[in-house]
Design brief:
Layout: H1 13-34, E1 41-47, H2 53-63, E2 69-73, H3 79-82, H4 88-92, E3 100-104, H5 109-116, H6 122-140, E4 145-152, H7 155-167, H8 177-184, H9 186-200, E5 207-211, H10 215-244, H11 294-317, E6 322-328, H12 334-342, E7 350-354, H13 360-363, H14 369-372, E8 381-385, H15 394-398, H16 403-422, E9 426-433, H17 436-447, H18 458-464, H19 467-481, E10 488-492, H20 496-515
Helix pairs in contact: 1-10, 2-10, 5-6, 5-9, 11-20, 12-20
């Protein structure tokens, strides 16, 4: 695989000066056009030590408008990063639409080195590469342009590069003992590198192997492939805009995969759905007569809140985080259930996130980005009052997401929740269900209450007209995202007392199940 990148290719100084000027002008022009585009560019560097990754990144900053480039380099996780799921720090570092994000020592480095040093099995390495493919696919189908550059040196050229650096007193610091250790293991690195590249080079997230022997050749090659990638993204964005011009809100935009590379699409994903169900849904099977008397409610509330308090203290001692997701109909009682849950916990160690329409900053990222940023540290809790499931509920029904977008969201959500569970986060998801009759009664109560009328909007009344359509979407959501690792709990909510106690029971059970492993 690497033979073509060990030829010792060079570019003369005169040719470099001639080509550099034209390339810089073209890159700046492409970057200027990118400012108004609806996608980001992700450029990731990996490769052989001493091949010039840092120098190439510095050159790109010199050639382009550095104000529109964000460079991230990752060392060992900080305490803050280690206390969250693995990909948390990478999601936080993603560039916004219209910008270039450069990544060094990112999501490939740890799986690669651990495999070379024999710290993981081939199966574990394969699993890590599959997680990477899923991560990159999620970004690519949302419109991100992903380019991965492997800077390569043959073993002899790598040794020479180290010796040249060490001979320069101003550059010697750049060669570490670990670099020489890696050089001694060169023949162990190469087969792992080949496996990594072949398993993760896809149509929309390709690897480019560039020889790093000559800095001038290397810089021109990297600049050229970056320019080509940006132009490809601009052309795709232009075609999307032309298709959508005059189509109105909710039509395909960034994220539409109508012309996506087949390697990026989920070939085994769910088939399209249409219309409300002909038969019963999962919600129609619930026993909505369930209720709890005042005495039983008071006793249950006191007992379960005390139980939850003790469990949360144990979970904090063991650095076990928890994420609670609350979804449900308007006026279903999500807020009341959340208040009864958090009342049993120390306010210093939880936060409640009420999810509304995304901000401008959030719209400039993948829709999951804003949820990744709120994930709790180890030992803490985040409660989501509405969540990422808006993608397959309100965004699906109101046309804010295309069919392609919300269809693939099921798998993206399952992958996301898999990351949480892999980090041993306790995850509990609730859909609080009420009947249309109970919702109407609560709406009228709110309308006549001086302290609750603000909760009721015209949109709430309008949504009632689409009850069957929403019910179908909830049915599909449960069918495709209620997994063994992250099951849904459907709560009969016509009786608020019963619903609140049942939520507390499930939260306690989830914590006990998790803590029981220790």
């Amino acid at each position: 695989m690497f033979e073509t990148a060990e030829l010792g290719q060079k570019v003369s100084k005169a040719e470099y000066q001639r080509r550099e000027l034209a390339l810089r002008e073209e890159l700046l022009d492409a970057q200027f056009q990118l400012k108004d585009a609806r996608f980001p560019v992700i450029l990731l560097f990996h490769g052989v030590d001493g091949a010039g990754k840092g120098d190439t990144v510095n050159t790109l900053h010199e050639w382009m408008d550095t104000r529109l480039i964000t460079t991230r380099a990752y060392d060992a996780p900080t305490t803050d990063e280690a206390e969250r799921p693995l990909y948390w720090r990478y999601w936080r570092g993603l560039p916004t639409a219209g910008r270039v994000g450069i990544f060094l020592k990112a999501w490939y480095t740890d799986p690669f080195l651990r495999r070379v040093y024999g710290q993981t099995t081939p199966e574990e390495f394969e699993h890590a590469l599959q997680r990477i493919r899923s991560f990159e696919r999620t970004l690519a189908v949302d419109g991100a342009i992903i380019l991965k550059v492997w800077l390569h040196l043959g073993k002899k050229h790598q040794k020479k590069a180290f010796e040249v650096l060490e001979a320069d007193p101003h550059q010697a610091w750049r060669v570490s003992r670990q670099d020489w250790d890696h050089w001694k293991r060169y023949d162990e690195f190469i087969p792992v590198a080949e496996r990594l590249i072949t398993r993760t080079s896809t149509g929309r997230a390709p690897w480019q192997i560039v020889e790093g022997f000559d800095p001038r050749y290397r810089n021109l090659e990297v600049g050229a492939v970056l320019l080509k990638a940006i132009r490809r993204g601009l052309e795709e964005d232009r075609r999307r805009r032309e298709r959508n011009s005059g189509a109105g809100e909710g039509m395909p935009a960034v994220g539409s995969n109508e012309d996506a590379d087949p390697e990026v699409q989920d070939r085994d994903g769910p088939a399209p759905l249409s219309g409300p169900p002909a038969g019963p849904t999962i919600l129609s099977t619930l026993d909505m007569e369930k209720s709890l008397g005042k005495a039983g409610y008071r006793e249950g509330l006191i007992r379960l809140q005390a139980r939850l308090n003790g469990l949360r203290r144990r979970a904090r001692e063991r650095n076990r985080s928890m994420v609670l997701v609350f979804e449900g109909w308007d006026a279903a009682g999500k807020g009341g259930a959340i208040r009864r849950v958090v009342r049993a916990m120390d306010a210093r160690f939880y936060q409640v996130i009420s999810v509304a329409a995304p901000t401008e900053e959030e719209r400039a990222h993948h829709y999951l980005w804003r949820f990744w940023r709120y994930l709790p540290r180890d030992g803490r809790v985040t409660v989501f009052d509405r969540s990422w499931y808006g993608r397959v509920l309100v965004e699906r029904i109101e046309g804010f997401a295309t069919e392609a977008e919300w269809m693939r969201a099921y798998q993206e959500i399952n992958d996301f929740e898999g990351e949480l569970v892999s980090h041993e986060t306790v995850l509990a998801k609730f859909w609080i269900h009420i009947t249309p009759e109970e919702q109407e009664r609560r709406f009228k109560d709110r309308a006549g209450s001086s302290v609750k009328s603000w909760k009721l909007t015209e949109e709430d009344w309008r949504n009632r007209n689409r009850w069957d359509t929403y019910e179908r979407a909830v049915h599909d959501m449960v069918e495709r995202t209620s997994t063994r690792m992250a099951p849904w709990t459907l709560i009969e909510g016509d009786d608020k007392r019963y619903a609140r106690v049942r939520v507390l029971e499930v939260v306690c059970e989830a914590l006990e199940k998790s803590l029981g492993k220790d």
